[in-house]
Design brief:
The protein is mostly helical. The chain has five helices and no strands.
Length: 117
């Protein structure tokens, strides 16, 4: 039931935003820009979305395992907490690296400079 609700909600949101995007005359062209600049916007959006989704899944699985481990052996809670926080920091650093690369592509945009020169 929950999965079906998520699918239906995502579909409704997609339809709602598609109508808004198509209502403006030339709205997509204004957002995407020309050639490499538009590709950079799209690449950074997709790149950060994939990184955030992957890190979210990884953090959720790590937290789940730590909670299960603490429930099975409460005395090991301290060691599990330290390991969990360290693991979450490593996972979050991947999202930060992705953000840095996305910002480089967005603002420095080496692709557009190579095509222009």
């Amino acid at each position: 039931m929950r999965k079906l609700f998520s699918i239906v909600l995502g579909f409704v949101a997609l339809i709602a935003f598609a109508g808004i995007a198509c209502a403006a005359e030339g709205g997509a062209a204004r957002f995407m820009g020309d050639g490499a600049v538009g590709s950079a916007y799209l690449a950074t959006a997709i790149g950060m979305a994939i990184a955030a989704a992957g890190c979210g899944i990884g953090q959720g699985l790590g937290l789940k395992a730590a909670c299960e481990g603490t429930a099975r052996n409460p005395e090991a809670g301290g060691k599990l907490t330290v390991t969990l926080i360290l693991g979450l920091a490593f996972i979050e650093s991947l999202a930060i690296y992705s953000l840095v690369v996305d910002l480089i592509v967005l603002f420095v945009n080496p692709l557009s400079k190579a095509l222009a020169g």
